[in-house]
Amino acid sequence: MINQNKLIVSHAPFWHNGSGIAERSYNVMGAALLAVLAGFMRYGMPAVGVVCLSVSMAMFWELAYTRLTKMPDTIGDGNAAMFGLVLAMMLPATTPWWIVVIGTFLAIIIGRQIYGGIGSNAFHPAVLATAILIISWKNHFNFDGAYVAYNFDFLSRYPLGMLKNFGPRGIAHYDLMDLFLGRQVGGIGSGCGLALVLGGIYLMLRGYIRWEVSVSFLVGVFLTAQIFNMVNPERFAGPLFHILTGYTLLAAFFLITEDSSSPVNPLPMVIYGLGGGLLVVLIRNIGAHTDGTLYAVLTMNLVNPLLDKIRPKALGKVA
Amino acid sequence: MIKRSFFGLATPLFPYDPPPRPPADPLDIPLPETISLYIEKPFESVSAVKLKVGERVHAGQFVQLMPGDAEGTVSPVAGRVTAVEPYSGDFGRRYTRLTIAAEPSGPQDDAFAAVAAEPTLAGLTRYLSDCPGAPPLHLLDEGGPEIDTIVISGMDSDLLMATSQYVMESRVEDVKKGIAVLKQVAAEKHIVGVVPRDRIQGYGHMGCEFLAADASHPAGMPVKIMHDVFGRTVPAGQRVEDVGAAFFPAEAVAAIGRSVSEARVEMHKLITVIDKQGVTRMVSAVIGTPFSAILAACGITLGARDSLIVGGPMTGAAVYSTDHPVQADTDALMVQDSADVPLSSDYPCINCGECIRICPVHVPVNMLIRFLEAGQYETAAEEYDLHCCIECGLCSFVCPSHIPIFQYIRLGKYELERIKALEAEND
Ligand code: SF4
Ligand code: SF4
Predict the structure, then answer these.
(1) CATH entry, B267-340, from 2.40.128, 3.10.20, 2.60.40, 1.20.1180
(2) B350 C-alpha to ligand 2 centroid (Å)
(3) How far is Cα B178 from Cα B187, in angstroms, rounded to an integer?
């Protein structure tokens, strides 16, 4: 009794499956890497610069915030870096440095910390930040203008812009396979469908994002676009074009799937995805914006808490 | 230790660990010098206690703590009482701790022989309620809840634990006898056995029907057995007895059988000992044996900051001292190296939904934990199904934020219980 070792008295369970937040963040970043590399190859050093600045600034804001508010450092969990990376994927390669600095501030401080930090953000921080940036500095998000200095060996007009301005006739020259392989202009990490899909499949298989959300989002886009296209093929583009352009695929695997702003119950996940897909095409086809994806995601983020109330009845629940 | 599989998309299974076939003999732990018993009765004062230090008890003797008490306990050994003292357990539960210096060749009490010759419910309840497996005989009494089914559980309720399954393999005759005795004293009750699905063969001659349950956690927990096997859902906050079932661990039935056939109260408890590597072995020790004696016999040394856990890895309870004794319901003893003790964090819920997908009873854990962390236990219970939780521990096991969800749940239930008791007192 007297000469006894001190034992640790913790609580059950005494096992843990070893998962962690850092692991989730780094896997998402790893999965995004393919699409980011495709962007580097397409746009060269300016893209590298934007991505590096965005990731490091996001980490800086996180550290600055936790230090200022005297909270424990959370920079090690990779969550801020992940949002920095995802933000950069949406930006044009020629984005000026100060927009990146402001964008990361908006994402990390306004989009995340103000709401209470990790897990409490109602909106996807990077989407919120990008949406604000687009509204504030529209010109810098004009993909046609952004890449005038480049010489591409493919149609260098932003596909969704062409669709908005000229209707399906304007996009007749785009080859769907080209679009899928990333031969189009757009955000650094949003152009190459192949890379995004591979990353997405990886994340779904490993369970870091939910396939229910991603798949139903894509189904939502497809069905809505298909219906529009069937009703009036002269005015509305086909479903595959919508899936392969703009932020659609990026949203399917990296934006709409974000943990804190998306539902966790089975049926809500499906409704959430479908609703997001529907909104994307609605905004593109009859709304004012060229690419409705970001607003679709934000809108779904908004209804998420409501949707997630639809849940299976607990076993033994009385009444 | 089970880790998250690479393909996290797949729903993991948590198979129970069946004992080897044929089962190896248990390691017999020698009778220790002193044993201690916990009696679930707060220790009021020395003068209130009838049992005095220095008094001699026989093995198998029914000892009363307070004068005029119908309740008491049976001494597993013959010896001399060396201490009667208060003891507080987890969540403020208060016990009286009785220490007895054992005399290996001391006299055997013969009062039970009469009960064994002519078993009655009252007699068995008096002598066997504290025997291995803690048979809930009192539930079968008229005054208690309406019980129509006696469930003999050959299922263990935690991983790595194999005590009940082992009994169903190696003590078949005792179990059979126990079933016969139960039939005799509780004739109008329906008796049904439950064993893991892959071991359902070979129980045709036992004298009662045997049904199969899934061999993976948490299918072995009584509430789950009631739902999966019997189709009876235990309402939130209630127990299996409230839906008409009395759960007898297989070991308890075996102990009843052996006690009656040998006319001597059986007091050897089977315990699955789980060492630091997760290797298990079965030991047999007299109830009241301190854990230190078991660890010594198994050659396990405990270092500083290691953990000693009563029960299995998912639902057990850590104790702070190796002096803690084997009790009637101590099915497993687990030792964990300090390096393996998982630490919880103060991260908030990231809403990943892992807990939702793993919870066997669909508790909205992601919402529940927010209210529990904020101390809003009433809302947690009313809107987020706190009382539906069957305490399987899986949500904490998978939480990437390492939130001690399970502990919060237990705390929440305890706090509500306390508030209720206080309110009742004030009325
Ligand atoms: S411990 Fe967790 S997983 Fe198990 S029943 Fe309770 S809430 Fe559900
Ligand atoms: S597993 Fe943990 S972090 Fe994930 S939703 Fe449940 S409580 Fe939140």
Answers:
(1) 3.10.20
(2) 6
(3) 13
Which residues of chain B from 328 to 357 reach within 8 Å of chain A, CB to CB?
334, 336, 338, 341-344, 346-354, 356-357
* C-alpha torsion sign, points B365, B370, B374, B380: negative
Pick the CATH number of B113-118+136-262 from 3.40.50.11540, 3.40.1170.10, 3.40.50.9100, 3.30.565.10: 3.40.50.11540
Nearest Cα residue to A157 out of A170, A138, A139, A176: A170
Q: Give the model's confidence band at B312: pLDDT under 50 very low, under 70 low, under 90 confident, else very high.
A: very high
Q: What is the ipTM of this complex?
A: 0.93
User: Does the C-beta of B399 come closer than 6 Å to ligand 2?
Assistant: yes
CB–CB of A160/A213 below 8 Å?
Answer: no
Q: What is the DSSP string of B323-377?
A: TPBP-TT--EEEEE-GGGPPPP--PPP----HHHHH-TT---HHHHHHHHHTT-H
What's at B12, amino acid-wise? P
Task: Write down the architecture of domain B28-111 according to CATH.
Answer: Beta Barrel (2.40)
Start-end ranges of CATH 3.40.50.11540 in chain B? 113-118+136-262
Chain A residues touching residue B310 (CB < 8 angstroms): none
Split at pLDDT 50, 70, 90, the class of B10 is confident
Q: Which part of chain B has CATH 3.10.20?
A: 267-340
Residue range B232-287, pLDDT digits in tens: 999 998 999 999 999 999 999 999 999 999 999 999 999 999 999 999 999 999 99
Domain with CATH 2.40.50 in chain B: 28-111
Which residue in B159, B321, B342 is closest to A16 by CB distance?
B342
Q: If pLDDT is split at 50, 70 and 90, which confidence band does B69 have?
A: low
The predicted structure's pLDDT at residue B70: 67
